[in-house]
Each structure stands twice: as C-alpha cells, then as structure tokens.
Amino acid sequence: MALYLHDGSVGGQATWTEAALAAGVADGAVISPFFTPQNARPRNPSGDEYAERIRGARGEVILDATTHAITLPGVDNWANYRTWSFWGGPRGDLSTPVHVQEHVARVFDHQASLGAPHLTPTLTLDNPIGPSADSAIELAEEGRAQDSASWQSLSGRRGFWLSPDLDAYVGSLVSIRAPTWFVTVVRDTMDYPPDMSDLRQTAAVCRTVQTLARRSRVVLCQSDLFGLPGIAAGADSVGSGWHTKQRICCPATYQQNDPGQVRRQAEWHTYEGLAARLHSSVSDILQRNAAARANALYQGTVSSATADLRHHHLGALRSLVATVDSAGISPSDRVQALRDVYEFALAEIDDFTRRYSRLFQQVRAQHVDGPLAGLEAYARAEGIWA
What we know:
Radius of gyration: 20 Å
Structural class: alpha/beta
Strand order of the largest sheet: 3-2-1-8-7-6-5-4
C-alpha cells in the first residue's frame, strides 16, 4: 500500500512534501505540470529538482501528465503547463493516430527523464460511449504498444460512473493488462468534504476498482479519506495532501487562484478513530468534555502546530488505508474491515451528539453516512454484505 502526495499550488509544496516523506507519513509524490514547471520559475522548482528532492526523502517519483484536466471547463492555469512539451501539434489534439502516438511518446520521454514510471495519459470521460471514450482507449492502447509495462489512467465524471455502459467499458480496459491503474473521480466542485450522498456513484467506483484490481494494482487519486470505499473494493493506495487541490479533482483544481482573495486556513483535526476531520471548534468540545477518549480516537495529543496537523492527517489516513488493506484479498473481508471502522465511528459520533453537541451530526453526515451507504450498495450488489 502507499499514500501519494499530489502536486498543488500552495507555497512551500516541495519542502512540505520532503518533510512528510522523511517522516514516513507518505510514500511518494505525484508531480503535475499544472503546478510544477519543467524549468524552474519564481517560487517553483523545476521538475528535475522536485524529483530529486522527492527521491532524496526516500519517496517514489511519479509524473502525471494530467491530460485528463485539459478539457475540463474553465481550466486556465497554464503558466507551468506551457513549459512542458507534451504536444507536437495544438494542445489537446488527439484527432489522428500520429497525434496520439506523439503525445504518449512525449509524455513517456518526460517521465523517463525524471526517473518516473511510464504513466499513460487519459481523458476525463462523461460517458463510456462516444469520441472521448474512444480516444481514451486509443491512448491506453498506444501506451501499451510503446511500453507493455506502462501504467494506465482512468478518469471520469458523474455521468461516466452512472452510465449503464460503464461495466462493458471497464471490461475493455482490463484487457490492456496494465500493472497499475490510476483512477480519478472528477467532481463538479472543490467542496471538501465532497458530496458523497449519491451512493450509486460510490458503488460504481467500487465496482470498477474491484474489476481492475483482479489483475492490477489500483490507486485512487486525489481521494483522501473518501477513497476508503475504493480500498475496500481492492485498491491499495490513495492520493492526498494538505490542500483541497491535492484532495479533490475538479475543474477548479486547475483554475488560477484569485490573487486578491485572501483565504484563512481553518484549523482541522483528523480523528483516525472517527475516519473524519473535525473543525477545531468541534474538536475542542470533545477535548474539554472527554479528553482521554478524544486522544484515543485522535491517536495522540492534539497539537495546533501546522506541520503537526499536516503530518497527523496523513498518518491517520495512511493507517486507515492499512487497516482495510491488511484485511487481505477477499472482497468480503475488506468490506467488513471498513464497515467496522464506519460503524464504530457512527456509535461514537451519535454518543457525542447526545452528550455534547448536535454539531457532531454534521461530522457524521459529511464523513460517514455517504461513504458507508455507498459501500453497502456496492457490497450488497456483489453479495458480500454480511
């Protein structure tokens, strides 16, 4: 299993990544051309330098060309992306086999120069039938043709996951026999926690992961705590970070920040025992009324130091992934392991609601109810909900 740190736009990204890798709370970093330039720019190390710093901290280096973001609506953060030469013709032009071949070759060349594995680019799909879906298959097949051991990517929005044609499309991907799949759920907004109320989508993602995981390793990109149902379905790794753009893939992830907008980062405390993060005001209620119980759920003593909070979140997430992944290869055992985590969290949160504050109900609604319902829908359909 692994926890990957996705690239992002926060100042100090490279330094914070090094520190997290050195602390053992993350295993590698995913470089994106939207956030890291090929050649150094002010406040942005070059791809080569960033890769060396990741390796120096004993981390795995991955370069994701992030082709799946270029057609998302409103994407305009091209300053760093333009420094990479991923395209022989116009950006995004995959209209001919030659353009597909050249794009994949250029991506692989850049990855090889950084000492990263070949990760085949893909497109974000709204439907498993149509020109974009066909182009994504062409990219995947070209990646396999250029390197039979290349990793593959799958990226989809809500319509893709809910399509009745999803399973047939995923079946065609299995035949590529990729050793690793990078799977990305593209959301409509950058809300975190993401809206997990549509249990059908969660179930569809889990079903897809289960199918791919029969022959391949599966990574749930930019998923954070909300990748846990996918881990139960057979994935072994998630992508995360300390900023929303590292935890959520959506059009706004690749849009320019408004330089005139000042955002004050709220303080959040991640409670491993609740599989949830609590705003400091809610966490304080718990600490005041049941400190020993709170510390047991938090797995330590709460610190307000920013670096401590970053590392604690990653450590808690990594531990939750390990808890589910260590249940073994049986889908029913993995589902039961995560079900146990969620049901324990529900009992604790409901007790806190009765004793201390109704604010804990929001924690339940945002972090547990949706993922658990999606997990149950997936598992019942597969006949593995005991």
